[in-house]
Amino acid sequence: FSPEEATVIYVLGGPGSGKGTQCAKLVRDYGFKHLSAGDLLREEQDRPGSEFGELIKSYIKEGQIVPMEVTVQLLENAMRAAIDKEGKHMFLIDGFPRKMDQALKFEEAVCKSKFTLFFDCPEEVMQERLLNRGKTSGRSDDNAESIKKRFKTFEETSMPVVDYFAKEGRVVQIEAVKSPDEIYETVKEKLAERGI
Ligand code: UP5
Ligand code: MG
């Protein structure tokens, strides 16, 4: 994708930090196309005839990162469809890239991001949110055992991506402990500072 074709903002943060919640507000007010890598993987997992269904299922339950070829392809297809069918050019890519190889591959082969919105939240807070959501979400990874694995993967594998972009001055960090509306006020201010 050329820069005229697509503006990409990555949305990162630990499991339960509120990425999806904040993205929904941004879609409402700014007209971004929201692409959650996790949602795309869950859809692919449930798609009849998918050759990746079983693989995705086991990776998600174990809190592991699905091999990047699968995720990058799903994202690329979804971006192409949004441009062609909806005329959308501004993308919030939520929960991706969460491993260094994905980050380098996507930036080189698909589209360079404008910056990363990073939601910073302590594990205790995220854990409480996820266990609470688990009562009704039906998500296979919203249980204490999977949550623990997701936190470990986030610290070991995904934080290096955030650190890498931060070194380049391309991270907008937001404290994500207060209420969704309070956090969103900060998000809007920080986006305005970046000319959005
Ligand atoms: N909530 C939200 N904000 C709140 C607030 N300020 N105060 C109080 N409550 C708040 O929120 C989580 C819950 O908290 C909700 O109930 C919400 O109401 C409440 P949400 O906005 O959904 O947080 P989010 O950060 O989006 O949490 P999510 O669970 O989606 O994060 P994950 O990053 O764990 O999940 P994702 O779907 O991105 O990935 C799932 C799995 O897919 C990964 O573990 C991995 O196995 C796989 N994956 C890959 O392999 N590769 C990828 O590139 C991406 C995913
Ligand atoms: Mg999410």
TrEMBL record:
Protein's UniProt keywords contain Transcription: no
UniProt-annotated stretches for the region NMPbind: 36-66
UniProt EC number: 2.7.4.14
Segments of this protein annotated with the region LID: 132-142
Keywords: ATP-binding, Cytoplasm, Kinase, Nucleotide-binding, Nucleus, Pyrimidine biosynthesis, Transferase
Enzyme category, top tier: transferase
Cofactor note: Binds 1 Mg(2+) ion per monomer.
UniProt binding sites for ATP: G16, S17, G18, K19, G20, T21, R133, K178
Residues binding a ribonucleoside 5'-phosphate, per UniProt: R42, Q64, I65, V66, G95, F96, P97, R98, Q102, R139, R150
Cofactor(s) of this protein: Mg(2+)
UniProt keyword Kinase present: yes
Reactions catalysed, as given in the entry: UMP + ATP = UDP + ADP
Family matches, as HAMAP family: Adenylate_kinase_Adk (MF_00235), Adenylate_kinase_UMP_CMP_kin (MF_03172)
UniProt domain comment: Consists of three domains, a large central CORE domain and two small peripheral domains, NMPbind and LID, which undergo movements during catalysis. The LID domain closes over the site of phosphoryl transfer upon ATP binding. Assembling and dissambling the active center during each catalytic cycle provides an effective means to prevent ATP hydrolysis.
Family annotation (NCBIfam families): UMP_CMP_kin_fam
Family listed: Belongs to the adenylate kinase family. UMP-CMP kinase subfamily.
Complex formation: Monomer.
Function, in words: Catalyzes the phosphorylation of pyrimidine nucleoside monophosphates at the expense of ATP. Plays an important role in de novo pyrimidine nucleotide biosynthesis. Has preference for UMP and dUMP as phosphate acceptors, but can also use CMP, dCMP and AMP.
Protein name: Uridylate kinase
Source species: Coniosporium apollinis
